[in-house]
């Protein structure tokens, strides 16, 4: 297929003046090309494009024209939950030659191929720092761009066990994603009708970030809860009981957009009284647990909602059964659902609201996704690590290279749209060619799979074929909304030693079975509201498992010392 694709490149491509393309050069046909094999986790919305091979061949040709290095790109896509086992089979047992694995950077060792293998002290992956210094200066520059607090770079360093101590090494080449990527979307038509009928005093126009961009208000947490109840009351009286539960979403997604109003962080560790603790031991998280209990017991949110999958919940929202949509509510997800809602019900309308405020009126913001939450590891057994880094560095060296890997062949798979100005800032756009727009919107011609190390510092176009409202939503959510982030963000902690696993397991099980499980089911915990029960258990756990917390905080101090010295250089 690649040979066929390469034969048509002369028709499709002109990358640089004087560049010569052939069916053999650059695609491994003559047997001396370097094969670069990448394993990648498949995104939920990933669809293999019909022209993936065409773009792959184009990248190979362009790279050869610029560097004189022939490469043969091989992409293996796997589901997120499959990839850790695949890595075990193919990398650790040497059943396959693998040059890179792209996956989530996560402290949840059970779910991250990167963390499982990059933290292995037996040398399953390489330290990439020297490689980047020698062959990846463009990579380093683009990762560091705008990273004033070094959180993006910190995420690349992992604590590798060395006897009883830990040595931080750069085991990951981090991606740079858009922060601030979550928001709350509401059925505006429901809200408007409830307001017009006198069931709520909150005017939706006061809170719509698009129609009232210069003067929108922030609802307090209690006001949002009141609004959901009032719209539900209107529905029961005048709308035929269409609404089953006002709020749709799993609790960890609700944490990103509502828990964040308390200052709660839904992942990893947090701070309590100046010490590092599991996130669920923070005061902010306890406040959020109390809200979940109130919502589930009060009919605002579905009891035992964790048992309902997001597809079902999304279909219920599209059917008019919910008011607020919080199912992994990223900017592009909300735009997609809003479009689907308009298709399902042409009389409907949706709106985005600003982050909720706490009861004092303080606006902390939506939870900010870590600046680098995916990355690449390079197995130690890779024989072509140098070329892999050179390839990524080449991709970062010129925006045209990066956009080829991200969008496909310009003029064939995508075209430049008109610049748009939103909030006084001008943004470049991209869209599908007009004669292919309907077809490509239904099935994109290229999956974007070779954007293997995402970096918005290289290129971050927005969709030119989005409506002005959709463009405004995207810019607001990704760049303008107030946000919070975990103060420990970017610090990867070591795997818990066996001596403490019983302690961490006991705490996690108690929290799951007796606290959060009861909260989302609308049940009390041994006669207490779950948030009160959590605070009581926290005091017990901090005392009972003091040795573990001493170890945890010592490791955090180690990391802080390392990074203070590292980035002072």
Walk me through this protein's architecture.
Helix content is 42%, strand content 14%. Helix 11 packs across helix 12. The chain starts with a helix and ends with a helix. The N terminus is likely disordered. The longest helix is centred in the last third of the chain and has 24 residues. It contains 21 helices and 20 strands. Strand 16 and strand 17 form a beta hairpin. It folds into three domains: 212 residues, 3-Layer(aba) Sandwich (D-Maltodextrin-Binding Protein, domain 2); 184 residues, D-Maltodextrin-Binding Protein, domain 2, CATH 3.40.190; 69 residues, no CATH class. The strands form seven sheets. Strands 2-1-3-14-6 form a five-stranded mixed sheet. The protein has a four-stranded mixed sheet with strand order 8-11-7-12. The radius of gyration is 25 Å and the shape is globular. The chain has 569 residues and is α/β, with parallel strands linked by helices.
CATH architecture of the largest domain: 3-Layer(aba) Sandwich
Order of the strands making up the biggest sheet: 2-1-3-14-6
- CATH homologous superfamily designation of the largest domain: Periplasmic binding protein-like II
Q: Biggest sheet, in brief? A: 5 strands, mixed
- CATH hierarchy, class of the largest domain: Alpha Beta
Radius of gyration: 25 Å
Number of domains: 3
Structural shape: globular
Tell how many strands the DSSP assignment holds.
20
Going by helix content, strand content and strand pairing, the class is: alpha/beta
Strand content: 5-15%
Q: What is the arithmetic mean of pLDDT?
A: 88
> CATH topology of the largest domain, what is it called?
D-Maltodextrin-Binding Protein, domain 2
Helical amount? 40-55%
Number of helical elements:
21
The first-to-last residue Cα distance is 49 Å
Pick out the low-confidence regions. Answer: 1-30
């Amino acid at each position: 297929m690649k040979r066929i694709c390469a034969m048509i490149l002369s028709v499709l491509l002109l990358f640089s003046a004087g560049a010569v393309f052939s069916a053999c050069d650059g695609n491994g046909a003559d047997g001396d090309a370097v094969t670069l094999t990448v394993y990648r986790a498949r995104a939920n919305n990933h669809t293999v494009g019909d022209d993936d091979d065409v773009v792959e061949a184009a990248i190979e040709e362009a790279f050869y024209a610029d560097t004189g290095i022939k490469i043969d790109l091989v992409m293996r896509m796997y589901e997120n939950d499959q990839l850790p086992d695949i890595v075990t089979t193919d990398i650790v047992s040497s059943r396959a030659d693998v040059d890179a694995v792209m996956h989530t950077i996560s402290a949840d060792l059970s779910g991250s191929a990167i963390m499982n293998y990059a933290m292995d002290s037996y040398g399953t992956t390489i330290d990439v720092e020297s490689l980047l210094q020698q062959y990846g200066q463009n990579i380093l520059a683009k990762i560091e761009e705008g990273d004033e607090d070094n959180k993006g770079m910190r995420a690349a360093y992992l604590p590798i066990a060395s006897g009883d101590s830990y040595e931080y090494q750069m085991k990951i080449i981090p991606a740079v994603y858009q922060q601030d990527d979550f928001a709350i979307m509401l059925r505006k038509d429901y809200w408007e009708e409830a307001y017009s009928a006198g069931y709520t005093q909150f005017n939706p126009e006061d809170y719509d970030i698009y129609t009232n961009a210069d003067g929108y208000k922030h609802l307090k947490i209690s006001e949002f809860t009141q609004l959901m109840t009032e719209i539900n009351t209107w529905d029961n009286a005048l709308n035929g009981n269409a609404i089953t539960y006002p709020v749709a979403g799993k609790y960890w997604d609700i944490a990103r957009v509502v828990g964040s109003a308390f200052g709660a962080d839904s992942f990893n560790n947090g701070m309590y009284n100046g010490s590092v603790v599991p996130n669920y031991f923070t005061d902010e998280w306890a406040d959020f647990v109390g809200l979940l209990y109130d919502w589930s017991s009060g009919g605002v949110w579905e009891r035992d909602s964790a048992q309902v999958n997001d597809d079902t919940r999304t279909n219920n929202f599209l059917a008019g059964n919910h008011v607020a949509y919080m199912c992994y509510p990223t900017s592009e997800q909300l735009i997609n659902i809003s479009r689907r809602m308009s298709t399902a019900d042409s009389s409907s309308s949706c709106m985005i609201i600003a982050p909720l405020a706490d009861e004092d009126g303080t606006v902390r913001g939506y939870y900010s996704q870590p600046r680098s939450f995916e990355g690449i590891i390079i197995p130690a057994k890779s024989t072509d690590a140098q070329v892999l880094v050179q390839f990524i560095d080449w991709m970062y060296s010129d925006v045209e290279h990066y956009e080829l890997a991200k969008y496909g062949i310009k003029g064939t798979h995508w075209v430049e749209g008109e610049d748009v100005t939103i909030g006084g800032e001008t943004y470049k756009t991209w869209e599908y060619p007009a004669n292919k727009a309907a077809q490509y919107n239904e099935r994109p011609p290229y999956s974007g799979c070779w954007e293997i190390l995402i970096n918005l510092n290289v290129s971050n176009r927005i969709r030119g074929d989005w409506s002005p409202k959709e463009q405004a939503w995207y810019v607001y959510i990704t760049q303008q909304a107030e946000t919070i982030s975990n103060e420990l963000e970017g610090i990867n902690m070591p795997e818990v030693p066996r001596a403490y696993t019983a302690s961490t397991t006991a705490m996690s099980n108690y929290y799951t079975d007796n606290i959060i499980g009861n909260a989302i089911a609308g049940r009390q915990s041994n006669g207490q509201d779950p948030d009160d029960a959590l605070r009581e258990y926290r005091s017990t756990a901090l005392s009972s498992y003091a040795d573990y917390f001493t170890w945890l905080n010592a490791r955090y101090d180690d990391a802080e010392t390392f990074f203070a010295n590292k980035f002072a250089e």
